[in-house]
Specification:
With about 110 residues, this protein is α+β, with helices and mostly antiparallel strands. The chain contains four helices and six strands; from the N terminus they run E-E-H-H-E-E-E-H-H-E. About 35% of the residues lie in helices and about 25% in strands.
Amino acid sequence: MRILIMRDGNAVAEINGQAKTAEHLGWPKEMVSKVLNSGEAVDGITLNYVLERERAGTAVIAYTSTTATRFKSLSECARVYGISRTRLERLIESGATADDGRTTFDIPCY
């Protein structure tokens, strides 16, 4: 698992595994494990596991006059509406409605 090394609240490095982290810091592996489990700082250094991010595509929102449905990806939205991903991309670019005549699609801005 990836470990984030922070010194005085600033990210310093992200390293794969406890052994490599111990080697990087010049600490025994047991010390790395102890600091990870306690969450306490040692000489201003804290360690945290890096949470794996969910792989995500381009989010899409499907709008009708009464609803707005968010999809995690273009592919998910295309499957639900029974259209190809390419067709969905064209509908987003043009702003045209889907074949039902009432649904439009957009990519949210964050």
